[in-house]
Specification:
- This protein is about 30% helix and about 25% strand.
- A 5-stranded mixed barrel has the order 1-3-4-5-6.
- The protein is α+β, with helices and mostly antiparallel strands and about 240 residues long.
- Helix 3 packs parallel to helix 5.
- The chain is globular.
- The two termini are about 30 Å apart.
Length: about 240
């Protein structure tokens, strides 16, 4: 088993391989992370690990009533308890930061892309930010991934149309969906309007076929439910909000 050490960036959302992640970084622990990544040589990848929070807060708690300059500075594990690994889902996604831009006030605007899944083995809180020992999870196709992918494309199109109808809006054309089953499986997992536990289960699927089979079941169920609802709040299927850090 080959392991590596990655800086960790816990979020209240799930990152999938191939998906873009915008970040607004303002906490000191994550500013330190971005400073370290920015200092790497240009030809070296700027990678960090994104894990979904199971129990805890994405933004460290602050002392109410104190002026901003007098508030205690959160430590690397602030908001995640005495044993941070228990606060996180153990399967995450490596992010590669294509853009790290420091603002005048010292915060950062970051644009990263998910690359590969990993399993979190341990968490170290001794530095300015959390780091984790991780092992990469290989993406296996599984049986009948191609056939399942065709079914997911049809189900996702029906889901999009039903969702647009529930919002009383029309689809402005239909963007092409990727033909490669694993890429399709991650795009659909990210685009479907599901809660974090459901998305985490899709990230943890043992192979592409299993993920596609789960998505097919979810899409059909969600499409049926949406058909019975008068309206839904507007949410862009293919865009994710910038994390508040």
């Amino acid at each position: 088993m080959t392991t590596a050490r990655l800086p960790l960036f816990p979020l209240n959302s799930v990152l999938f391989p191939g998906l873009v992640l915008p970040l607004n970084v303002f906490e000191q622990r994550y500013r330190a992370l971005m400073r370290d990544l920015s200092a790497l040589p240009e030809d070296e990848p700027r990678r960090f690990g994104v894990v979904a929070i199971r129990d805890g807060s994405e933004v460290a708690p602050s002392a109410p009533g104190l002026p901003e300059g007098a508030r205690p500075e959160p430590g690397p594990a602030s908001g995640f308890g005495a044993d941070p690994i228990k606060a996180f889902h153990l399967v995450g996604c490596t992010a590669d930061a294509a853009t790290i831009r420091e603002r005048e006030n010292g915060t950062y605007e970051v644009l990263a892309t998910g690359t590969t899944r990993f399993r979190l083995l341990s968490v170290d809180a001794s530095g300015p930010y959390l780091t984790g020992e991780v092992e990469t999870i290989a993406e296996e196709q599984g049986e009948e991934a191609g056939a399942l992918a065709s079914g997911v494309v049809r189900a996702f199109r029906a889901y999009q149309k039903r969702l647009a109808g529930a919002r009383e809006r029309s689809l402005n054309g239909e963007a092409d969906l990727p033909g490669e089953p694993s890429v399709l499986s991650y795009l659909v997992a990210a685009a479907a309007v599901l809660d974090t536990p459901a998305k985490q289960r899709l990230l943890e699927a043992p192979d592409t076929a299993a993920r596609l089979a789960a998505e097919l079941k979810l899409l059909r169920a969600e499409t049926a439910v949406i058909g019975k609802l008068p309206s839904l709040p507007a949410t862009d299927l293919t865009r994710r909000p910038t994390s508040p850090n």
